[in-house]
Structure formats: structure tokens, C-alpha cells
Amino acid sequence: MKVTVNHRAIELFKGARVKEAVQKFALEHGNEMPRGPYVVTDGDGNIQKITGRLSEDDVLFIKPKNT
Amino acid sequence: MKITRILLLATLAMSLFACSPEETDQAETTRIAILHTNDMHASLDHFGKLDAYKKEMEKKYDHVVLVSAGDIFSGNPVVDFYEDKGYPMVDLMNRVGYQASTVGNHEFDYGQEVFKKRMEQANFPFICANMDTRDAVVPRTEPYVVLEEGGYKLFFLGLVELGNNGVPSTHPDKVRDIVFTDPLESAGNYMDRHNSYDAFIGLTHLGYDTDKKLASTYEQFDAILGGHSHTLVDTPQVINDVLLSQAGDDMEYVGKVTLTFQEGKLTDRSAEMVSLANYQPSSPALDSLVKQYRNNEALNRVIGEAASDIRGKDELGSLFTDAQRKMHDLDFAFQNNGGIRIGEIPQGPIRVKTIYALDPFGNELIEYEMRPAEIKSLIRNASHHGHVDLQISGGQYSLHLNEADEVEHVEILDKNGNKPDPDSTYQVGLNSYIASSYEFDHSDEGESLYVTTAQNLIDYIEQEGTVDYAGVKRVFVEHTHDR
User: Fold this and answer.
1) Residues of A numbered 4-63 whose beta carbons fall under 8 angstroms of chain B's beta carbons: which are they?
2) What is the pLDDT along chain B (483 residues), one digit of tens a residue?
3) Cα–Cα dist B193/B240, whole Å
4) Would you call A13 and B209 a contact, using CB atoms and an 8 Å cutoff?
5) In what order do the strands lie in the sheet with B265-275?
6) Under CATH, which number does the domain B302-482 receive?
7) Residues 203-222 in B contacting A (C-alpha not used; CB under 8 Å)
8) What is the reported pTM?
9) Which residue in B222, B258, B230 sits closest to B1, CA to CA?
10) B445 to chain A: which residues are within 8 Å by CB?
11) CB B458, CB B365: distance < 8 Å
């Protein structure tokens, strides 16, 4: 299943959660991970908890926590 | 009944402002606060705080309603291994006064028999409009509930998400004989009723993106209170004149939607997200009950016996991977050494809490269909400088290293000692951390089996009764240049 993280397409197994999307993004685009604490939001800016289950074509953003 | 003006109150800083109209209440105005949580996942710790907040709201509002948008169970061993699985959640929800809960996908995790018992013990209905249980163990659920508060009829429609396989995200065995229908289509069957009620609300477990589609499709909703994606909607959103809200997870927040009725009509809707962090538990009795549940003796429950000490990565990793392979009829399974968090399981009784110490990360088991070359790519990439990282079940493997300690080739043998057929595919189990954090070739995208590796270990040890891994070793390193 494909999701988009910080505008990057990420391939994940079916039934993956937000935390797996972050792990995969860090694996493939580690230099683009925020340094220090971060939050994950959906495309509308709502915070996504790491245990949230993802669906095909979901959009996520990993952002530094205090911005 | 739709209103033209939506008052959106977003931040905690604005919460006082949100409550100020109560002080100037007029006789013809009725304000109803709908408090909603979702994805509690067996979190007990904040029930006292939620109760305190609810009591505070009861002083400020004419009426207060408390509802859940699903996934009340699964995720906390204290609750998951209570003698009556999940009962502490139902007990606490009864005490705090929940009035309805949507069926979430994790409501099925303990099995239908258990869910049936919990439904019978709940003082509130579980609702779901896209689920037909007539041939299943789970009793019939109502598609909706109507709560009457101050003479106003509040309609709540329950909907649960479906995965690609047409059932909610749980193991398919858990929802056997239950027929699910598309939630958006199912919702359409109820839209002609919206004028019969004073407020028309979706209480959904669909995920935020699907909630947006639901709102776009059906303007009849006054509000959709959602769950499943664990989204914290701290900036209230309106789509198609439908107010959307979702309160994160684990009861760290409670959502509050305020409905204002004037002269019999709904004239205002507002939403805010309230952190429970700063509330003190409401009563010593409730707090004491939470502590009692938290100290659950069930974690000391013996699930099986170790015939001898199970020591080190080889032995513990073999236990880990056997559990994955054998419980799900896989050909091979792999476990990373870094995910094995204790050094040994001593000979004697094995308790639930030992498994959570061994495997504390909440990883899930993922199944892939892989060819031997793909399996070798996984092993090779995981074995930096000849360092063994993966344990195996279903056979054994050898790393052949060159003089620079780089992996020259990988040799796999199946459980019968034969080389796997290079043109065949094999069912392979990996934990979700390996699946998302390791580089390996795979043409199959993989699929979660919706069971944590810890739960899987417990199930396996319970099934086996006694486990013996003394001296088990399945991974070997050979230096080619020594030959």
C-alpha cells in the first residue's frame, strides 16, 4: 500500500500503522527526518498518533514538534 | 436539523470562552455537551480524570452526553489479560456513564464469545449500521441509538471501517460469519430520517479521511465524531457544513461538541478538544478501582513452562520465530536480535509479564510471500560485517563471510535440511519493525496479521504447554577464507 510522507511516496505492508510509516520514511529518507522531537500530522494538520492505522493513499507529514 | 452558524472553539486557551455562555443562559436556550472519546485501547489511567471533567461539565451544561467512537479494547496487557478479557473497560465505562459506543475493529480481538459477554455487561449499547451478525456469535447490534436529553432527540449512527479484504482490521477469523457492508453506502440508508431528530450525528470508527468523505457525501449530519485513525482534531473542521471531530487515542483527550438549542431548534454547534492531563481523578473510589485493575494479578498468570532455561538470542529467537511460524502456518519466520529484550526465560513457569518484558514494543506480525532470493536479501542486508541479526524458524541459515567479514553468500536450508526451491514462493513472517525498517527485496507488499508478536508468543506457549529450547541454534557464520 502506498502512503505519502512529507511528499515522498512510501510503500508499506497492508494494515501498517503511522509508526511503520515513520520508520520506513526514516529508512529511505533519513536525512529529511526532523532532528529532535517531532509530530506526525495528516494533510489537514491534525496530529496522528503513532498507533493509528493507515489506508491506501493516506498523506502524512513529519514535523519538528514546536513549529 | 441543520443550522447556519457553527461556532468553532479550537484551543484549550479558548475553553473558558466556550463555557461562558452557560453563565448567561436564557430560559429558552438548552445547551447539550456531547463528550466523546475514541481508540481508548484499554487505557485505564484517565477514567478518574474523565469522570471529573464530566462532572464539571454537568454543572455548566443543561445536559451532558458521553459516547465512544470505538476500539475500547486491546492494547494494554492489564486489560487484555484480565480473567474476563476487557471487562475492566466495560466496568469503568459503566461507572463513568457512557451512553453508547460504536463497534471498532479491535472490539473483535478477544473473539466473538468474549465480545458478546462484554456487550451484555455494558450499560450502554454498541452500535453499528454496516454489520450484520445474524449468523454470528456476536448478538445483533442496533445501527443507531437515539438519546433523549431535555426533550431533544439526538440520533447517533454507528459505522465501522473495512479493510481491503472487506472486513474490519482484525484477524479474519475473529469476524467469521459477520457480514459487513460498505460504510458510506450503509449510511445512506438512514439519511431520510434526519428530519425526525433534533441532532443527527455520526459516531464512526472509519478513520479521519473516510469521515471527510462521509461528510462530503451526506450533508444531513450535524456532526461526525470519529475514531480509528487516532487523529487529534484540535482545530475543529467543517466539511459540507458537517462538524468533524476525533480525540486522538488512549483517553489523553476528550472531545466536546456543544449543541445549542433555542426555541426547539439547533442553532449552534461548537467543538473543542480538552486535555485530561490537568484534571485530578474525581473520587478515591474510582481511582482505587483503576489502581486495582492496574495491579492485575493476571499478568502473573502462568501460560506455560520452560523445560530448561531459554538463554541468549539463539534460543529466545528460536522461541519467538517458532511462535510466529507455527501459529500461522508459515514456512519461515524471522526475528531481529534487537527486539529480544531479556537475556533469559528461566526454567519453570512462564508468566504473561515475562513475555511483555521479552517483547515490549507492540510490533505486529506481517506475512509476506517471498522467493528464496528475496529471503536471502533480507538476511544479507541485516548482517552487517558478519554480525548475526536475524533468528529464524522453518530451517536454518549460514552466513559465508569473506576476509573483510562481508557476506559473500547466504545459504538457507528448510526444516528438512533441503535448499528451498529458488522458483517457489514461501510464506514468511516478519515483525512490523523488520518490515518497515529493514531493506530487502520483495515483490509482495505484505499484510498485517493483526496480532502483536507478544500476543502471538503467549498463544503459542499456551498451546504448547511446555517449551524446550536448550541448545537450539539455527544461524551459523562461516569464514570462507578459513577453508
Assistant:
1) 11-18, 20-21, 23-24, 26-27, 42, 44-56, 58
2) 565 345 444 433 334 334 434 444 445 899 999 999 999 999 999 999 999 999 999 999 999 999 999 999 988 888 988 889 999 999 999 999 999 999 999 999 999 999 999 999 999 999 999 999 999 999 999 999 999 999 999 999 999 999 878 899 888 888 999 999 999 999 999 999 999 999 999 999 999 999 999 999 999 999 999 999 999 999 889 999 999 999 999 999 999 999 999 999 999 999 999 999 989 988 899 999 999 998 888 889 999 999 999 999 999 999 999 999 999 999 999 999 989 999 999 999 999 999 999 998 899 999 999 999 999 999 999 997 778 999 999 999 999 998 888 899 999 999 999 999 999 999 999 999 999 999 999 999 999 999 999 999 999 999 999 999 999 999 999 987 654
3) 18
4) no
5) B126-127, B100-102, B63-68, B29-37, B253-262, B265-275
6) 3.90.780.10
7) 207-210
8) 0.81
9) B222
10) 1, 11-14
11) no
Dihedral over alpha carbons A55, B459, B362, B36 (to 10 degrees): 60
Among A13, A49, A55, the residue with its CB nearest the CB of B435 is A13
Q: Do B209 and A42 touch (CB under 8 A)?
A: yes
* Fold of domain B24-294: Purple Acid Phosphatase; chain A, domain 2 (3.60.21)
| Angstrom distance (rounded) from CA B393 to CA B370 | 15
The set of cell numbers assigned to B410 is 547466504
Measured on CA atoms in the order B408, B414, B419, B423, is the torsion positive or negative?
negative
Nearest to B207 among A12, A26, A55 (CB): A55
Q: Cell digits for B103?
A: 463497534
What residues in B contact A42, CB-CB < 8 Å?
A: 208-209, 229, 231
Question: Which long-range CB contacts under 8 A does B264-269 form with residues at least 24 apart?
Answer: B264/B198, B265/B1, B265/B3, B266/B1, B266/B2, B266/B3, B266/B198, B266/B199, B266/B222, B267/B3, B267/B5, B268/B3, B268/B5, B268/B6, B268/B7, B269/B3, B269/B6, B269/B7, B269/B222, B269/B223, B269/B243
Query: Cβ of B39 and A49 within 8 Å?
Result: yes
- Residue of A55, A60, A62 to mutate when probing chain B, most B C-beta within 10 A: A55
- Judged by CB atoms closer than 8 Å, whether chains meet at B248 and A55 is answered as no
- Whether A1 has its CB under 8 Å from any CB of chain B: the answer is yes
User: Comparing C-alpha atoms, which of B252, B206, B214 is closest to residue B104?
Assistant: B206
Please give the helix or strand (H or E) that residue B188 lies within, else none.
helix B183-188
Residues of A in contact with B234 (CB under 8 A): 46-47
Which of A16, A21, A27 faces B439 most closely, judged by CB atoms? Answer: A27
B383 touches chain A (CB under 8 A): no
CA angle B285, B286, B290 (to 5 degrees): 115
- Kindly determine whether residue B248 and residue A49, on different chains, have CB atoms separated by under 8 Å: yes
Domain-by-domain residue ranges, chain B?
Answer: 24-294, 302-482
Asked if B437 lies within 8 A of A27 by C-beta distance, the reply is yes
ipTM strictly over 0.90?
A: yes
